[in-house]
Amino acid sequence: MVENDVRHLINRKLEHVEVTVFGDVSRKTYTMLEDVTLVHQAFPGISLEEVNTKAKFLGFDVNAPIMVTGMTGGTPELGKFNGTIASVVEELGLVMGVGSERIVIENPSSEESFRIVRRNAPTSPLVANVGMPQISRGYGLRELEKIVSVIEANALAVHLNVAQEVFQPEGETDYQEEVLGKLKDLSSQMGIPIILKETGCGLSMETVRKFSSYGFHNFDVSGQGGTSWIAVEKIRGERRGNWKSKSASLFSSWGIPTAASVIETKWADPASFVVGSGGVRNGLDIAKAIALGADIGGFALPVLEASLEGRDAVKQFLSEVEFQVKVAMLMSGSRDVSSLKKAPIVILGSLKDWMESRGITFSTYDKVRKGGY
Amino acid sequence: MVENDVRHLINRKLEHVEVTVFGDVSRKTYTMLEDVTLVHQAFPGISLEEVNTKAKFLGFDVNAPIMVTGMTGGTPELGKFNGTIASVVEELGLVMGVGSERIVIENPSSEESFRIVRRNAPTSPLVANVGMPQISRGYGLRELEKIVSVIEANALAVHLNVAQEVFQPEGETDYQEEVLGKLKDLSSQMGIPIILKETGCGLSMETVRKFSSYGFHNFDVSGQGGTSWIAVEKIRGERRGNWKSKSASLFSSWGIPTAASVIETKWADPASFVVGSGGVRNGLDIAKAIALGADIGGFALPVLEASLEGRDAVKQFLSEVEFQVKVAMLMSGSRDVSSLKKAPIVILGSLKDWMESRGITFSTYDKVRKGGY
Amino acid sequence: MVENDVRHLINRKLEHVEVTVFGDVSRKTYTMLEDVTLVHQAFPGISLEEVNTKAKFLGFDVNAPIMVTGMTGGTPELGKFNGTIASVVEELGLVMGVGSERIVIENPSSEESFRIVRRNAPTSPLVANVGMPQISRGYGLRELEKIVSVIEANALAVHLNVAQEVFQPEGETDYQEEVLGKLKDLSSQMGIPIILKETGCGLSMETVRKFSSYGFHNFDVSGQGGTSWIAVEKIRGERRGNWKSKSASLFSSWGIPTAASVIETKWADPASFVVGSGGVRNGLDIAKAIALGADIGGFALPVLEASLEGRDAVKQFLSEVEFQVKVAMLMSGSRDVSSLKKAPIVILGSLKDWMESRGITFSTYDKVRKGGY
Amino acid sequence: MVENDVRHLINRKLEHVEVTVFGDVSRKTYTMLEDVTLVHQAFPGISLEEVNTKAKFLGFDVNAPIMVTGMTGGTPELGKFNGTIASVVEELGLVMGVGSERIVIENPSSEESFRIVRRNAPTSPLVANVGMPQISRGYGLRELEKIVSVIEANALAVHLNVAQEVFQPEGETDYQEEVLGKLKDLSSQMGIPIILKETGCGLSMETVRKFSSYGFHNFDVSGQGGTSWIAVEKIRGERRGNWKSKSASLFSSWGIPTAASVIETKWADPASFVVGSGGVRNGLDIAKAIALGADIGGFALPVLEASLEGRDAVKQFLSEVEFQVKVAMLMSGSRDVSSLKKAPIVILGSLKDWMESRGITFSTYDKVRKGGY
């Protein structure tokens, strides 16, 4: 890749952070977690101290079902944020992912901005990150091993971002089915789990079934309701006079709301491991996502925002989220995360209608989410 | 308890009244009584004079199904409000409860603020009040008998307030199941009925089933939609810089709306005695709560507010509520409270969806509320 | 009745008109006709000229299914409005009712304000009007024959207004069942049809079943959504410092919305004759009411308002309504009123939920409204 | 036709364009396409380049399922817009219809404003246009052949506009059933397909069944949600003091929303060819209409508006729409238009209730729209 391209990639990453944090790119739509109520239990049968938030992340023990999902890396500035977040994740015993590492392959000097994550979080489960289009376009074992090794990752997230790419002038929309076989082979050779991950538009039951048929069973739904990458591209497009930006605006509410996507994913592959993310902003959202069928909840933007204020802000934010998860567990009568998955819930409004349109009855799904499939 | 702790408890009580009456602690959410319609009967078959509002409260006769639920007591000022309310309750033949009497045990000089209630309401059914955490933490027969005797109570309400305690710096969230057995034993020894009572978040069918299995069958649902104690704690927390106050804000709409809670309670224990409270503000709310399955309706805040204006205001308010109950009974064609329980109702909107999510069909519930279980 | 009482009655009538026209007494709620859609038929198979709006009103032929329902009379001023309206009703071939004629019995000098109606509408079907409480309190054949003869009425409406009376200081809420037997006897003796008529709160299926069991089968639903007589009494009460006015405000949205009331009435007595009124304001509302099961649509307030501007305004208003009925018939593919009763309709929103709560399925009701019972 | 009448017709056409573009005639209501969600497929299995938008229009190949529906023509000015649009339609390989050609019969000098369309679009499928009332009132083979030959049309649209005519002072509302037989005969003689087309109020299942029974199977639904011709007539009426304009206002939300109309049409005649139009404004609307059962999407107003700005604006607008269709196809996992017809969809809100009222279950309709009838 010529120098110009690398500079371009770096600038794009910086602009993504800037637009995400300061631009108006929060969804007009919503996560449909608003349509979910955890039923209050006035007599939980336990005290707050007895609530056990410990969870499993792909076999690793974590103190709470909270994941900082991948968002950044690539330049010294962005590396600093990564480092700050990593040290808090280590202290609190959570999980962390990094932003797309394509830049590591294309510009070795960017490595440090990722390496700092493992250095500051020596024992935490960490998740490397690469885009599906890069694998379509030629990344092989060498590149993926490089990407994984930079953070000594415990898992590799392969992100799908067709909705973002399609509105980029430089967009790559290669999603031919062959790449799934190739990825499966690479995954066997690398020996670490692969997480298939959307980037704000959610996974559908059809997509999950296709992935399952190739032997993939770990998913990060990243549903609609959080950062709209389409809106990010719209703002970038307007700055450059890209004619696609008007269309990007039209599609800014495209996607599957997070709550619906968790349900579709679990419905399609009941034994799968699911990260509930996309517009998740606090511990109550996380608890709802888990009660709906996720194994862990994830977010990136609120942590990135806190990291601009420094380590204390990140620690305070994540501690509050952990407290909120614990409170939601206590008041829904859930002694541990596995009880939370079975906690009584109420589903109203559009999410109820969504399920009906998709042929998912509440009573059948209630068994699925509780593990009775 | 050292003097400092007592002063602390007294100040907390005063602050609770102040924040409740003057702070913005009414729910952003609603009681779902808004989703209930009593069907108008153009030809009631009776005149207003013939409508009989007499009701039973745990075996005692009352002139109308109206209860002033427990809210205050503990200091001379708060005792004055208690006394004013009690004398009107006696005059009108209603039911009254007092606020938490923990302070009676910890500070004997506070007794007078409760004793005045029985003095001013010598023949009314009165309900003593203690928190479940106090029983968890050691209250025995001696303490409960003291609490009951101070107002020569006809029943003892044991309140559950996990949602409030969890956000207090000093919060006690002990809700281990053992306490239910202990409370059952104490109740047999005392020989007066126990009412299990929420404090603004409502009782669920799971919670009611647990209580029933221990032999408790009297409930005060105190559902979501009225005073949010979580919001009260949020305001108190902000004043003190308590880091939990941000989380308290997140949970301020947590809970089971009053109408849903009445239905869940009756569904779980069809033969139970149910006080419909939580955001109840007038006689139409009370009539709806009874038609949904409650035996009596209750409220505290509007009476407390009237008591700040004096005895006349309390009497006028409660007389209007009684008139409103009577009008709602007349126009729904209900000759007496037992007819009101069978009056035709319509359930629309979110309450309809809530029931569906909880597996409660309207037609089956219609039989349950009418006593046909 | 002493002179003072008569003056009182006259003043009340004048104040009713004044408050109704100038006060804010339109419902906060709605008629639920908003939830009804007549399905457009792009190819009606007829021309506008061929649409036949002729209808039957209790055996009488009328040019369109439009009734000016009873609202006023009693003083020379109010008689003038009655006369204006009557002459237009005669010209257009519609139906007209008058306001309560109790004043005719109590003050013979008020007769002229009613007699003018028959004088100006010599061939139109006219409906006399008396309150059910008057019959409870003693009116017999003599009084009813007087009331009927004053306008040589073709039918007698007996109005039910418990919701209004209950908030009047002078209110009469006698609705004991005996009066129905008495009324049935009187009706046999008089030999003209009786219409049982609500006054803004609608008829329920339970009420209609009771009436049917006594042999009454003509109904004017007068549902919720139009003039709220409760709100009228609230304003009158505030002027007089009546303590009931606060409660009147609470009940101002009490009642059965017009669309729901038409359905309940037809459901309870499929062969009955039904006037669809209450918040009906134009010809589209009338067409919807008929498609829902009514035989004719009725309104009072918009005609009264037009009459303040004079005869031309009344004629223009009623001609437009007739045109609107005709347009709605054409575009729903209804050649005549009997086709309109079978025209395809769509029911959305709260009315759909209302029917569900009342155990009325759309498909079964669809047969009932089409006459297939 | 006398000269005055022709001038009148010309002026009416000019005023229609003026009011449509500058007046407030967009619907208060909506298309119900808002209630439809195409389910996002994160891994489409194809790239954007592989998406094939080619479609069939009555046997003709087009590059994308986009039709500029008929709106204008008749004067030199309006002919200029027609010419501009036609040349872009030719370049992009789309379909185009023209406005009502009645004026061609009545004023031969208007021909040129239509002829320019075929001249500028020599190879595109073009659709001639005549009103059903003209055929009722006497147009025979000679007139229709003239209308078709002026643009060497590939199909003839016969438009139904009873809702517009009924509010015109000069309105013609002849829709007697005989005309359908006559039209069928004419169509056999002419040998080109007939499209029956609404003009903003939508086709119902009853209407479509009637047409099918006469052997017509090509429909342009033109549902409610776009330009309200009733609102156009209301504005024209007010300018002229036409008393019908108040009634026009009342009916301005009359009609079948576009999404509901596509479903009703396909439900009534599953093998029919359907143009989804009415409030369609972009490529996402078109993709939804096709997923609901249409074969092609159509619009007129946004193209007319662009044509006021010139050829570049028209080309840019239509290119963007084509891109949007392609993006919606990619992200719903639809390789071609026939896959798009089977793409997973979610139906929420009023459209769901509409279907229920009309006896159409989602699961049965899902088979119909996918061709499994």
Into which percent range does the helicity of residues of chain A fall?
40-55%
Tell me the Rg of chain A in angstroms: 20 Å
Report the oligomer.
Answer: homotetramer
Instruction: Compute the separation of the termini of chain A in Å.
Output: 49 Å
User: Most extensive interface, residues per chain?
Assistant: A-B, 34 and 40 residues
Query: How many DSSP H or I helices of chain A?
Result: 18
Give the uncertain stretches of chain A in residue-range form.
none
Q: How would you spell out the order of helices and strands of chain A?
A: HEEEEHEHHEHHEHHEHEHHHEHEHHHEHH
Physical arrangement of strands within the biggest beta sheet of chain A: 4-5-6-7-8-9-10-11
Coarse shape of chain A: globular
Largest sheet of chain A: 8 strands, parallel, barrel
| Mean pLDDT over the full residue set of chain A | 92
The CATH class of chain A: Alpha Beta
CATH architecture of chain A: Alpha-Beta Barrel
Protein name (chains A, B, C, D): Isopentenyl-diphosphate delta-isomerase
EC number (chains A, B, C, D): 5.3.3.2
Binding site for Mg(2+) (chains A, B, C, D): 165
Pfam family, one (chains A, B, C, D): FMN_dh
